[in-house]
Amino acid sequence: MQHSRKLFERALAVIPGGVNSPVRAFGAVGGQPPFIAEAHGARLRDVDGTDYIDYVCSWGAVILGHAAPTVVQAVQAAAARGLSYGAPTGAEVELAETLCRLVPGMAQVRLVNSGTEATMSAIRLARAATGRKLLVKFAGCYHGHADSLLVNAGSGALTFGVPSSPGVPPELAALTLSAPYNDLAAVEALFAQRGADIAAVIVEPVAGNMGCVLPQPGFLQGLRRACDAHGALLIFDEVMTGFRVALGGAQARFGVTADLVTLGKVIGGGLPVGAYGGRADLMAQMAPAGPVYQAGTLSGNPLATAAGLATLALVQQPGFYERLEATAAALTAGLQAAADAAGVPFSTVHVGGMFGFFLRDTAPRDLAEAQQADVARFGRLFRALLGEGLNFAPSAFEAGFVTAAHDAATIEATIARARRAFAAA
Ligand code: PMP
């Protein structure tokens, strides 16, 4: 840890908390983050030469494994042709066509640079299209750090105890209503009280920012019905679940079509990218086709689109998601067996290439249950796992991810190491 420690000291002097995104900090689990030198396949190597099997995978962005050869080659070839033009390219069209073909209900799509930009833009469009101001979100869901969405948020905001951030004007925060995840009655009550003012309901169709919390049967369908009954739009934030829980994302997996969908992570193959899209009549309202403004100097960047296209080419191969899901199933079953052997209360969930584990007997259904996590014990377990060379998210309130590079031997090695970690923690 010597080199990581020195880098962290330097980082602390010039970067708030030493990290460029709070979720990378170890404040909730103790210790300091290893600084990464390189990564290949399922493995990270830190600057001290220590290897880790990685289950963070750039928070889900990496789905083929680190430095996947076809993605790296596509990016290198694109880089040699220029890094950014600020003018349209063929690759952008191809990526947009691919997204519109594969994502249900996506008639048109706009590329942006992050998930935050995607959700921020989608809610602006929803407000413009409906002429209404209010949003409904769910406690523990994270939709990026735009002002309107940092209300009862998950992920780092939850981990570090600031779910509703200072700096968001209370007048603006008051326009965001929140309900417990999986609680359809609470949503219906909000619509009953303020339905005529609600522009949209935004939801992570599988929540991945309070741990991994599955939608209960009927929850997403119920949101669709409630939105339709009250003239509100349904926004699926698929930044995490898009091309992660199925080729067509959560919409395909659960059979519910949203009005607008946001994407990020996987569609950039590890480069900065986001996207929002959906119904043709809505997307036609975006500038320059319509009056709702949103723009970006680097949007549709040639390197990001090259990485995205190379990634999406491989995930479309037959059996890709079946294999990914089998990997996640084998991993979570192995972790469960390791916990059982050590007598640790434990539960897991997995869907497609994402998973969660919890230090409790049943998987949580909402934030209140997720917050019953034994955070101190999670910290001990996290440190023991890391000591065994297993990199999981340094928080009880994050999902985990597997990639196509997590082969059977990798999972087997993980489980053997996890058995030792559970016994120690
Ligand atoms: N929405 C969801 C569901 C996310 O998980 C995230 C990031 N983890 C975001 C939005 C924000 O994306 P970004 O970090 O790229 O801004």
What is this structure, in a nutshell?
The chain is α/β, with parallel strands linked by helices and 425 residues long.
What does this protein structure show overall?
This protein has 425 residues and is α/β, with parallel strands linked by helices. The protein has two domains: 1-67 and 318-424, Aspartate Aminotransferase, domain 1, CATH 3.90.1150; 69-316, Type I PLP-dependent aspartate aminotransferase-like (Major domain) (Aspartate Aminotransferase, domain 2, 3-Layer(aba) Sandwich), CATH 3.40.640. It contains 15 helices and 14 strands. The protein has helices at residues 2-14, 69-80, 90-102, 115-130, 156-159, 170-173, 184-194, 219-230, 249-254, 280-283, 302-315, 320-341, 367-370, 375-387, 408-424; strands at 36-40, 43-46, 51-54, 108-112, 134-138, 176-179, 198-203, 233-237, 260-263, 274-278, 347-351, 354-358, 390-391, 400-401. The strands form three sheets. A seven-stranded mixed beta sheet has the order 4-10-9-8-7-5-6, sandwiched between helices. A four-stranded mixed beta sheet has the order 1-2-3-13. A three-stranded antiparallel beta sheet has the order 11-12-14, covered by helices on one side. A hairpin with a 4-residue loop joins strand 2 and strand 3. Helix 12 runs parallel beside helix 15. The longest helix has 22 residues, at 320-341. The radius of gyration is 21 Å and the shape is globular. The protein starts with a helix and ends with a helix. The mean pLDDT is 97. Its EC number is 5.4.3.8. Its cofactor is pyridoxal 5'-phosphate. Homodimer. This is Glutamate-1-semialdehyde 2,1-aminomutase. InterPro entries: 4pyrrol_synth_GluAld_NH2Trfase (IPR004639), Aminotrans_3 (IPR005814), Aminotrans_3_PPA_site (IPR049704), PyrdxlP-dep_Trfase (IPR015424), PyrdxlP-dep_Trfase_major (IPR015421), PyrdxlP-dep_Trfase_small (IPR015422).
